[in-house]
Amino acid sequence: MLLPIIKTNHSLHLSLLPYLVCFLPLFSSNSKEDYQAMAAREILNKMKEKVLGSTDSDSGKGKSKMSKNITHGFYLVKGKSYHPMEDYVVAHFKKVENNELGLFAIFDGHAGHNVPNYLRTHLFDNILKEPDFWKEPTDAIKRAYDVTDSTILEKSGELGRGGSTAVTAILINGQKLVVANVGDSRAVLCKNGVAKQISVDHEPITESEDIKNRGGFVSRFPGDVPRVDGRLAVSRAFGDKSLKKHLSSEPYVTVEMILDDAEFIILASDGLWKVMSNQEAVDTIRDVKDARSSAKRLAEEALARKSTDDISCIVVKFQ
User: Fold this and answer.
1) Rounded-to-integer distance, Cα 179 and Cα 167, Å
2) Which residue, 219, 190, 217, is CA-closest to 281?
3) Which pLDDT score, from 0 to 100, does residue 149 have?
């Protein structure tokens, strides 16, 4: 007896669970049917893992050893799409010789999770390998982004043809904050209660001339957002080999000194920013002391506002 397997965007469909359950008792005890029964149970278990795991949230927190006032927290929640979670985060402090680095990032993948997962494990290492990182962090980060993207394209057979946006923040000794991004994952700094966006949303409509100069086009279909070649809703990203001639992976990089007026920074994927302005996000968590609770509140507020995308938030508190 053969059982049909329904897939939706690589995720086994929940509607098949009762189907498998009702068929399990029909298998007899001979070896062939035992094997089929075992296979069906294995499929059932994997389906449960996929379906139940896709709704789980993830969170964490930590603090600086150099400055006890600096803490961080993150919170991720799966969106309502059928594909597995495609957001990945990095959030930890790392000692490098006599320096402390806070490494924070959100990678929002599309058309698969391999590229954002690769970025999670390799991008910061590539940045810190740049010999002039300490003297010229902006140039070092731009080179590291380029090297990382080139490697992802070379490994497209292994990683697939998907891509990812990115926003990264490196806090150096609790005093200097270096933020970089490609795509629409965003960084917002709160200074004396006022939101200051310190990243750039790379949207096709704002970079349409550059896209056209590379031989591409920007679609503007009714009821849809502008897209590069009618496909991708951001103009800069890692990966996306089939579109790379018309895309850029050069990051926008900015440096902020953390002074007394800096309260916290929010890094988040577009699942938050689609439903909330920068100032609304700041106002939502300004009275929350705990960083992880702050990230969770932002995600929950985005859900309450009917965000359907994956939502990832990191909050770093400076006070």
Assistant:
1) 7
2) 190
3) 98
